[in-house]
């Protein structure tokens, strides 16, 4: 009972914050908005985004500006929750922050290669100053990967990125792959040091499922689309196994064809994933699977950070959908088509 009471305060706060998430019917309204300024005007009147947009004139903001401001809402939420959390609860949030830090570094890598600003640094500088030892502003101002990597010297990211072979140093996705493998491998070890009890069970389930699904997606793409050799595929796998055993993963990697890959996958705990690998919905399936586990963990582990984790995942998903809505406006898609991009190709409106 005492353990449950220790989470009552933060769970009550999250329930209140959840009321400000954008609802499905509101996204259906958003799908009918035809200009960036009108979407910003909608968000200026929405309780979840009112504070960050109130200082801006919607007619003067570019789409990229809107994306960066929308993205900053997530970090503002995280900071508010972190300030409210006790020391034990902050350990769980520290593990979550590791993923967000890696996400920002990957955005920096993309920024170097396409020269598009991905984040509103003035909104994130204070946040990262409190939670990270990295100088995000300096990293984001890098013009080459060599400069970017040099600014990471002394951190655990430096050896990861500086070790990339010379023939792959011009490929941004190779750097991002390195970062993902590093993150999942280290996070799998860190969880046992940072969290305990029900929090550890919940984190293990989500993180382990993420790793299994990422390995399946990467292995399938490398085999079906790039015809990669098993040794090359294995080198790109996260060296962690959860419900997908090492033996099962090796069989998938060594399968002789995409068809055999599917047949072997059907005999694993992720057999229902097979159909989604070929119809373009694998990322949507991934998101739904992680969302379901996060939601179910609230009931399974009420005396834990599961409600916080679920809320942050919902907010993260919501921001992704708003960014997609802005892209749909840019390409002048019809509302029905926009909804399929916002919610996934399986969206039916029900």
Rg over CA atoms: 21 Å
What about the largest sheet? none
Spans of at least 5 consecutive residues whose pLDDT stays below 50 are none
The percentage of residues in β strands lies in under 5%
The proportion of residues forming helix, as a percent range, comes to over 70%
Shape: globular
Q: How many extended strands?
A: 0
- How many helices does DSSP assign? 20
- Helix and strand run: HHHHHHHHHHHHHHHHHHHH
Give the class from helix and strand content and strand pairing.
mainly alpha
Which whole number gives the mean pLDDT?
A: 92
Gap between N and C termini: 39 Å
What does this protein look like?
- The structure is a single chain.
- By secondary structure, the protein is mainly α.
- It has a domain of 109 residues.
- Helices cover 70% and strands 0% of the residues.
- It has 20 helices and no strands.
- Helix 19 packs antiparallel against helix 20.
- The chain is globular, with a radius of gyration of 21 Å.
- 29% of the residues are buried.
Write a concise synopsis of the structure shown.
With 350 residues, the chain is mostly helical.
What is the secondary structure topology, with strand pairs?
Blueprint lengths: L1 H5 L1 H11 L5 H7 L5 H9 L5 H4 L9 H22 L2 H28 L6 H11 L4 H5 L4 H6 L7 H5 L9 H23 L2 H28 L5 H6 L10 H8 L4 H9 L7 H5 L3 H19 L5 H25 L4 H9 L7
Keywords:
350 residues; 20 helices; 70% helix
């Amino acid at each position: 009972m005492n353990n449950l009471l220790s989470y009552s305060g933060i769970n009550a706060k999250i329930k209140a914050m959840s009321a400000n998430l954008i609802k499905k019917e509101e996204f259906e309204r958003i799908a009918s908005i035809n200009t960036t300024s009108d979407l910003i005007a909608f968000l200026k009147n929405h309780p979840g985004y009112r504070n960050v947009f109130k200082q801006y004139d919607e007619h003067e903001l570019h789409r990229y500006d809107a994306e960066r401001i929308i993205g900053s809402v997530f970090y503002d939420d995280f900071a508010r929750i972190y300030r409210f959390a006790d020391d034990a609860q902050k350990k769980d949030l520290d593990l979550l922050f590791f993923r967000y830090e890696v996400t920002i570094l990957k955005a920096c890598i993309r920024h170097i290669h396409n020269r598009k600003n991905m984040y509103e640094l003035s909104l994130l500088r204070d946040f990262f100053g409190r939670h990270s030892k990295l100088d995000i502003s300096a990293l984001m101002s890098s013009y080459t990967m060599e400069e970017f990597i040099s600014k990471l010297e002394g951190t655990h990211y430096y050896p990861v990125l500086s070790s990339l072979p010379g023939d792959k140093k011009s490929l941004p996705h190779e750097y991002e792959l390195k970062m993902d493998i590093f993150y999942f491998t280290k996070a799998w070890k860190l969880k046992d040091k940072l969290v305990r009890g029900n929090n550890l069970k919940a984190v293990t389930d989500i993180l382990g499922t993420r790793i299994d699904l990422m390995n399946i997606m990467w292995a399938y793409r490398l085999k079906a689309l790039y015809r990669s050799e098993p040794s090359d595929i294995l080198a790109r796998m996260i060296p962690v196994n959860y419900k997908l055993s090492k033996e099962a993963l090796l069989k998938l990697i060594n399968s002789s064809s995409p068809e055999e890959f599917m047949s072997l996958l059907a005999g694993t705990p992720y057999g229902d994933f097979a159909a989604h690998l070929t119809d373009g919905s694998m990322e949507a399936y991934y998101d739904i699977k992680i969302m379901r586990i996060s939601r179910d963990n609230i009931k399974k582990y009420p005396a834990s950070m599961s409600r916080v984790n679920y809320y942050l995942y919902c907010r993260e998903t919501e921001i992704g959908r708003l960014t997609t809505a802005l892209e749909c406006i840019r390409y002048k898609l019809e509302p029905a088509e926009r909804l399929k991009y916002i919610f996934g190709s399986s969206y039916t409106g029900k």
